[in-house]
Amino acid sequence: MTSASPTIQNVVAAASLLSLGAAYLLTKGNMKMCELTYDRAPLLIRLGEGLQTTTVAFAPSAFGGTGEEVRKGIVFRITPEDYDAFVAFEQWCRDSLRETIPNVDELWSPSARKSDKWGYQLKAKINIRERGASGWAARFYDEAKELCDAPKQWQGLHVSTILQVRSCYVQRNSIGLLIDVSHLQYREQSAEQPEECPF
Asked: Is 195 inside a domain boundary?
């Protein structure tokens, strides 16, 4: 992973470097895309500091899927500071779309959410393939920053990740961000349970 990728706070602080392209229709379906760039390059965001602040909320899954899917949804538990910055970033995206989509606020599907039960969360997509398999997929790293396989146990995993915020998607009933995990470093969870104090 590269430490050169900005944090979401860096991106929001330098929002003048953000650019949202004109909407274009995908060849399949009725979805439109507006490409996002940062300083005229793909927008990559570093999330999680030293495997300390970000965890995986649930094992990646596909809605109504069998569990065998390559592309799955993933939810991260993030810090309040990361959440606030993502909210500001999503506001910038809505403001940029408002001229062509006046009702963007009603249709927006937020990637950053918070709740009393689950805390601060960010949803993204992740493509999981065996290492060496063909096709685009996330790359995984261990604590020593060496390439490794995807985790076996996901929930509660401490991670640091690079997210590619590819674009805003526009559908008839929904608008939001397309966020993909491109690189993910994680700390293996210990299989041993700590001995309980007898007192």
From this structure: no
